[in-house]
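Page header: ASSEMBLY MODEL / two components / 723 residues total.
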Amino acid sequence: MKPPRVLVAAVQSPFSGGGAERHVRRLTEELVKRGVEADLVTLPLIERERFDLVRSALAWRSLDLTEIGSRTVDAVIATRFPSYAVRHPNKVVWVIHQYRQAYDQFGTPWSDFTSSEEDRRTRETIAAIDALGLSEARRVFANSKTVAARLAKHNGIASEPLYHPPPLVGRYRTGPFGDYALTVGRLDGWKRPDLPLRALAHAPMARLVVVGRGPEEHRLQRLAHDLGVEARVRWIPEAADEDLIDLYAGARLVVVAPQGEDFGYVPLEAFLSGKPVLTTDDAGGPLEFVVDGQTGFVVPPRPEALGAALSHAWNREDALAALGRRGFDRASGLSWDETIGRLMTAAGLSLP
Amino acid sequence: MATEDDLAAALAQEIRAAVAETASERPAPSEPAGSGEFSDLRIPLKRAEEYLTPSIPDASRLAGAKAAVVRLLRFLWRGQSSFNALLLEAGNGIVSALERNREAVARESRRFEEQEKEHRRRDSMQDGRIASLESLSLAPRPSGDSSRPAGASPPLPESVYAMFEERFRGSSAEIAEKQKVYLQFLSNLPGPVLDAGCGRGEFLRLLKEEGIPARGVESSRLAVQACRAAGLDVGEGDAIEALAAAPPASLGGVVAFQVVEHWPAAATFRFLAEARRALAPGGILIVETINTDSLAAMNAFYLDPTHVRPVPPEALRFLFDAAGFRELRVEYLSPLPRSERLEEDSANDVRLNAMLFGPQDYAVIGRVPAA
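Prediction written out in full:
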């Protein structure tokens, strides 16, 4: 039997690349590993002006991937907006996230969409593209329950949450509890990287390691200075995989403080390293894994609340270990075997 | 293992208590309890408010270096666009609230209209009853009434038909309004106008107002009485006989509104032939009846138990021609209100509307050729 041919359709962010791009590359690799003839098709999403979004969607729409080189493509797995506008009779969509500025981020500082006629029309067009691309799909998966809930709320589209393991699955390891809390992620406004820093001001014994870089970097360093906590903060703009694994393994606990995150690898990475997670009750995706008192702590998004949690948890290694172990069990349940299996079944294909 | 679980649970409990304590230090702004349909509206407004009150300490701290000012301005700009966006959401909310309000008002006004219709219906029933009581005081008609054309179906008792007309034909004012359209054809005629089957005299009154000499003939004694009481020149009797009695070329115009559907075809043709004879050259004949091309109008045809047969426009036009009338034209009248027709989005809708909900009446208009 010939191996099934599957194309993964994804949006590219040239020169930067992010979690979503690693995700689709990994998906393609995992398909190949299981004997599927898989490849990745990408187009950049241009956002210079509003109409570029529509142009990018049209570019995807004009691609018909039914047949390549006179050989049939058995299925397309489309991912991020607007890659699911692509044409294929057997299209499965795994929505990593929508174009959030037009939906849940609209009306927050994280969206530069305004009330102008152009912006309003663009938002409507994006909704129309989503409706078209997703309604054609044989099955719609969402990256998390949070993403599925947004699809239902903003587009009235039903989807199934489909989780996947974090990038370095199989390589994370547990280790002794060190003397720092860890926060990992791009230093971008909506990820609220200032919150762990501000929490530090309310937890005098805690230390923090911040891994990541982004537009807020300098402002955050200034904030640490102003708060008088800079001596207790270590900045690591970039960490190689091995270093990141070590940082997780040696952390006391991991702080995850974004607002309305889609999915988020960090809690899973923390769990696979045996560490509990401190997060906020508006974090979105992380709350699908972090359960207060079970696998970590969930507090309101206020510096004092996070500070109080850090203070009380800091010297309670036994309790942290118990939480971390349960987190480990929770995250170990995710595997590419199951994720790929569900995607292939949805496409009506079986693994060779 | 169980002790570890207890440890974790205890710690979580402790943290919850500590967090609660921090909350009491600085109480979170309490959300106003949403009241009814406007609570949704308040949420974006509330968020917009947050942009209007930037935190002063942050701002003053950043006010130092030029780059920081630029950053601050960018922050403000982002806040402004967010604020605009939220205002838009609030505006949209207000609009939809207004829409809901307007729908409610429209519903109420429809209800009032329904009630008013019902009241008018009752009014006309009362009028009919009064008319029927009045008819009791009239002398009984002589038996062997010859004023009806042969073959006409046995009439309802007059008083009942009077009630029927009140109920279904519409008020005198409504009828007069509809009939105004014919006045344009009746100026500069070579003689007076005869209104055959003039009913309660609505059209005669219009002609009188226009100073056009006219008389009527009507078979209903009740209607004749009403006309005479209003000072109109109306004879009691059968329209065809009245026309037959008129000297040749003595009339300038003959009108017959909602009459021919009460007659068999032979009577209609005789009426047309008598009209042709009685009209002077240049004289005009207008015959209005129910539009058989419209299913909605056909429903109205069968409503009236004294109707004999519907007369299609082509047939009536043919009879006009055969009787010697020229310059024939067919006018369609009394369109149904838009609300009772289909929305016309396609050519099919237009055709369906014409078949199902076309104009209720039509008239054939013809002239006696000038000598």
